[in-house]
Design a protein that fits this description.
Layout: H1 2-7, E1 9-16, E2 22-28, H2 33-45, E3 54-60, E4 70-72
Parallel strand pairs: 2-3
Antiparallel strand pairs: 1-2, 3-4
Length: 73
């Protein structure tokens, strides 16, 4: 799942946040990318001291894969 999920991430951009200091926008091409966001990135942020300053929005840009359209942390 690691290889498949990492290949699902199309792009990542960092922007000033609205309400939180940083907005991390992640574009995925299929739902396998949720593993990267929810299991790996979320785990790294937990107890890092940065959780309250970062908003993560991951969007599935592939129209034919409707399993997961959007995830926010």
């Amino acid at each position: 799942i690691n290889t498949l999920s990492s290949q699902a991430i199309e792009s990542v951009s960092l922007r000033p946040g609205d309400g939180k200091a940083v907005l991390v926008e992640i574009e995925m091409v299929n739902a396998a990318g949720v593993y990267q966001v929810d299991n790996l990135l979320k785990a790294k942020l937990r107890d890092s001291g940065l959780e309250s300053h970062i908003r993560i929005v991951a969007v599935n840009t592939k129209a034919d894969d409707e399993l997961v359209e959007r995830i926010e942390l």
